[in-house]
Amino acid sequence: MNNNPDKKTPAPEGGGGGGNKKKAGPRSPFKGFAVWFLLLAMFLMLFQVFSKGFEEAERLSYYPDFVRMVEDGEIARCVIVQEVSGQEYIRGELTRTDPDTGKPERFRVDVIVAENVPDPAWLRENGVEFRYEQQNPLIFQILTGVLPFILVLGLLYFLFARQVKMAGKGAMSFGKSKAKMLGRERVSITFDNVAGVDEAKEELKEVIDFLRAPKKFQKLGGKIPKGVLLSGPPGTGKTLLAKAVAGEAEVPFFSISGSDFVEMFVGVGASRVRDMFEQGKGNAPCIIFIDEIDAVGRSRFSGIGGGHDEREQTLNALLAEMDGFDTQEGVIIIAATNRPDVLDPALLRPGRFDRQVVVDLPKLEGRTKVLAIHTQKINLSPDVDLRLVARGTPGFSGADLANLVNEAALLAARRDAEAVEMQDMEEARDKVCWGRERRSHVFDEEEKRLTAYHEAGHAIVLYRTDQTEPLHKVTILPRGRALGATMQLPEKDRYTESRKRLLGMLTGLMGGRAAEEIVFGEVTTGGQNDIARATQLARAMVCEFGMSSTLGPRNFGANEEVLFLGREINRSQNYSEKTAREIDAEISRILNEAQQRAIDILTAEREKLSTLAETLIERETLDGQTVETLIEKGELPAEEPSDEETQPVEEPGEPSTSEDPDKPGDGHPG
């Protein structure tokens, strides 16, 4: 490993010994010349201004004006000037003064005929002071020829040279790579700031260890990996991992985006790829990070609509540099993308990207750690349980969790609180998931009652169905596009689902529609989203999961994920029309049975359904513990007495029955 600090930070942006050494030399000699040109131009302009008075003098003819004024004694002094071209003129001062300035008036006489040059004896006889003067040819040439060019050059420098320098470091530098080299001193993010992606961290730590101590791995015949591809959903921390690598690595780290390669000029992308690898080879061992590589690494299979020659040339150059004929060791590529399915197969083969690391959504423990990192600079109240917040955010990415913490801080600041409390985290979670409460949306009594019975039906059916998640909150306050919500809080992350759990989910989704049918005798459009989700789940059970007792364990239909244009464009169904009718019948049967189960549950709990709905109309929001108590006992839980009411009244002679106040209670915090 190279420990030379001058070699580790050669980029102009970085500090260190390399940057100071580069500043010692002249970086722009043209800039110094331009300054001298401008100073000279200013001097000549000042000279012209001071000599302007002679140009503004009164112009006289030699005969008869000048001759008459000399003989009349009106000329005080004069200078006979011989120009470079051989012509002569006379300038001087009159004996009378200017009433405005109090200075002698000036005059100028152009001598057109050589015989009109005044005789010195004649001037002496009339008492005129005179002298002869030769015009300076250098000043004359500069004034007449060089000064305009100097002014034009200065104007071009200030208008165009700086613009070209800022835009592309020169007008002919389109083919130069835009990769920025980062040193450890410029990046404050390390692996301690990354959580929830432990496997990806281990993969990247191994790459960094290889760069630091290559002999440790090479003694057994191992080779350094050529590239690592980070793929995963948006917001999972792929770019953050790359920044952490830059903070941890003690080698040069080049960063560039995939969109920086392709320009409007043909061949620029391939040229920039070659230039980027040249810089990497000059600083080897080093790491090159390409963000959003799918912008340049898309498959060369053109499909419908033709190909993209410029992007394909850039991709070909990238393939050749990563593992071509003239490949050198010591340059590791780390790339990030959200769409690994559209990348070219030649780019993904071993030898180019030896490792493909999936950066998935964080699980429960990972979400807890991510929340702990994002709340380090937040003043949290002691009642905030980050694990409880993590339980309520399944499917959240790291960016979503950061947004949740920020929303909670804003909510706490809006109500002038000194710390972020659990209610702020809950409200922020609901706001991120379902939208902000629309308290301005006014319900009439009929709609409010309908929504209350709909949500109460969901809550009772979910509570009475086996293997469903615990209830967390039931509300009839509109959020986003929903008029109400019944929220569940998963106890843990689940990777597989049983048939019984899926049927329980279907029954819970049908609870709102079943309650409307039982109470009002008709159904409304309020269950539109429930029906859509239930139909999608039932179709997946039949066509993908093989959970149909009639059709058996078989997959029906092609993959319905997002496909790259041109791939599998001529897909056809892998089942007959008769099977399609059987699939539709099986889906309808599953949905109808779930609907009937929900109706049976709510018919048996008809009185509790009314009690829960009326309570929702009164309070608008109920927590899960209150809902469970109401379903079990048919009434609301007794309100906790105040501190004054909890003090026992001891009769004389009776022992105290109060518990030790220092002992922690076992009640539910909510």
Characterization of this structure:
With 670 residues, this protein is of the alpha/beta class. Strands 6-8-9-10-7-11 form a six-stranded mixed beta sheet. The relative contact order is 0.06. The model is unreliable at 1-28, 168-172, 559-570 and 641-670 (pLDDT under 50). Helices cover 46% and strands 11% of the residues. Helix 11 links the parallel strand 8 and strand 9. The chain folds into four domains: 61-135, Signal recognition particle alu RNA binding heterodimer, srp9/1; 180-358, Rossmann fold (3-Layer(aba) Sandwich); 364-434, Helicase, Ruva Protein, domain 3 (Orthogonal Bundle), CATH 1.10.8; 445-563 and 574-633, Methane Monooxygenase Hydroxylase, Chain G, domain 1. The longest helix is centred in the first third of the chain and has 32 residues, at 137-168.
Q: Could you give a short description of this structure?
A:
The protein is of the alpha/beta class and 670 residues long. It has 24 helices and 14 strands.
What is the number of domains? 4
> CATH class of the largest domain, please?
Alpha Beta
Unreliably modeled segments: 1-28, 168-172, 559-570, 641-670
Q: For this structure, what is the CATH homologous superfamily of the largest domain?
A: P-loop containing nucleotide triphosphate hydrolases
Give the overall silhouette. elongated
What's the CATH topology label of the largest domain? Rossmann fold
Over all CA atoms, what is the radius of gyration?
43 Å
Mean pLDDT: 76
Structural class: alpha/beta
Please report which band the strand proportion falls in: under 5%, 5-15%, 15-25%, 25-35%, 35-45% or over 45%. 5-15%
Share of helical residues: 40-55%
Say how many strands there are: 14
Q: How many helices?
A: 24
End-to-end Cα distance: 57 Å
The biggest beta sheet reads: 6 strands, mixed
**Main sheet: strand order:** 6-8-9-10-7-11
Name of the CATH architecture of the largest domain:
3-Layer(aba) Sandwich
Biased composition (Acidic residues): 637-659
Coiled coil: 592-619
Family: In the C-terminal section; belongs to the peptidase M41 family. In the central section; belongs to the AAA ATPase family.
Cofactor: Zn(2+)
